[in-house]
Amino acid sequence: MGKDIAGDTLLELLSRGLDNHPAIVSSDGVVVTYSSLRKQVGMLACQLRSMGIQQSDRVGIVQPNGVESIISFLAVTIAGTAAPLNPAYKSDEFEFYLDDTNAKGLITSDDVGADARNLIGNDILDIRVSSTSEGLVKFTNENIDDYAQHDIAPDEDDIALVLHTSGTTSRPKRVPLRHRNLIVSVRNIVETYSLTSTDVSLCIMPLFHVHGLVASTLATLYSGGTIVVPPSFSPMGFWQLVKEHDVTWFSAVPTMFQSVLSRTRGKTVAGETKLRFIRSCSAALSPITLKEMEDVSGVPVVEAYGMTEAAHQMASNLLPPGQRVPGSVGQGTGVKIAIMDEEDHLQPTGTIGEVVISGANVIDGYESNEEANASSFVGQWFRTGDRGVLNEEGVLTLQGRLKELINRSGEKISPIEIDEVLLSHECVSEAVAFGVPHSVHGEEPVAAVVLKNDISERELINFCKEKIATFKVPRKIHIVESIPRTATGKIQRRIVAEVITGKSSQ
What we know:
Elements: H1 10-13, E1 22-26, E2 31-33, H2 34-50, E3 58-61, H3 67-79, E4 81-84, H4 91-100, E5 105-108, H5 114-117, E6 125-131, E7 137-139, E8 159-165, E9 173-178, H6 179-193, E10 200-202, H7 210-223, E11 226-229, H8 238-244, E12 249-252, H9 254-262, E13 277-280, H10 287-297, E14 301-307, E15 312-316, E16 331-332, E17 336-340, E18 353-358, H11 370-376, E19 377-378, E20 381-390, E21 396-401, E22 406-408, E23 411-413, H12 415-423, E24 428-438, E25 442-451, H13 457-467, E26 476-479, H14 493-501
Parallel strand pairs: 1-11, 3-4, 3-5, 5-6, 10-11, 10-12, 12-13, 13-14, 25-26
Antiparallel strand pairs: 1-2, 6-7, 8-9, 14-15, 15-16, 17-18, 18-20, 19-20, 20-21, 22-23, 24-25
Helix pairs in contact: 2-3, 6-7, 9-10
């Protein structure tokens, strides 16, 4: 795989592709070569530095998938710290994340990110981005041409990316991913799937998530390959896109597979594409969906296991002739995996317990959150919050969650966040959110509330829609006389789910 990358940064990652080889291709045919990518990232990083952005400064990015978002992200990671945000967030969410990261700049475009822009004052730089039909990305701020050349060279210990992960007992936690965390994870992914410069990745995962950023994008650039990036995922014309761009692999969540399959029932593209494998990650994939996807595509589907705190990938099944164990997430990929009990003792093979991990891709700790760090880190081990079991060959099978996070199509939702929104309504005295099984999304958020004044379920749902992103809004709100409690008076979401819906949330 070339030289040791222990000291590498994302700047050095950009040097791996051949000058004239396509690095990024938009779905409408705009091509950015590696030579152009390097020049553009360097120029934009210098512009950011001339605006006053320093290495430790956070810059929010509110952009749809595309050439602009990828190049902007890379430039920010070189000059400062990127903090990409979901464009679907509501104003209250943008306000929280911009404040929580202490953002010094915000990158939007004229047609995206208006809600976020409306929140910024003089202390946050308003940076607009646009691109030409030739794929040249530029910041359109006044006096942007008046910038100096800067010798910018981030260190491996510098934070390149800040994301948030949902908590069960608190607001979202800041996850600081250093250049070295990202590069190690990227290398692990490239080695797992033998990615080379001949590979073409179709990036359909959003670029405000670690999945799309690390697996689909950075790993492809590290391999010197090509990223095809449509503005969003659409099952309509999906296989045509794969064919037109000679896509060799893509990574997605199970709901995307189900959407694609719903459009291709009774048909097959086997032998009609350049695909060599498909990767599934972020949520459990049913055996039926896996088989149907393999039948339609004619290539193996490999299941992987990732999380934000590990800069994405932790384990994966292998490509043929390597081992694939249906229902498992495979072996650790450059990551140590073990099972631990509640008393912090490592458990023998075959014992179900909490999955713990250790590796150079794992964060050193949450940012400014001693409580979370104390509960999540045990020596070299990071507690994932997932239940699982290892067999004698080190293959990991997940057995559900310990944490009460709601996993909707790979989106991790904190029930506490939903609780807080509902409790902010003057008619609600108690609120408990929880996940319930869903045939397509895996889980859906629902809630139970006790009222102090009359209000309808629909009115409460509409209230939530004003405060939080659509994927977090409860699909059902049960209005009850009281919230079920344990014998000691505690509220356990699993118990509430079972009592109110008659179904387990696990």
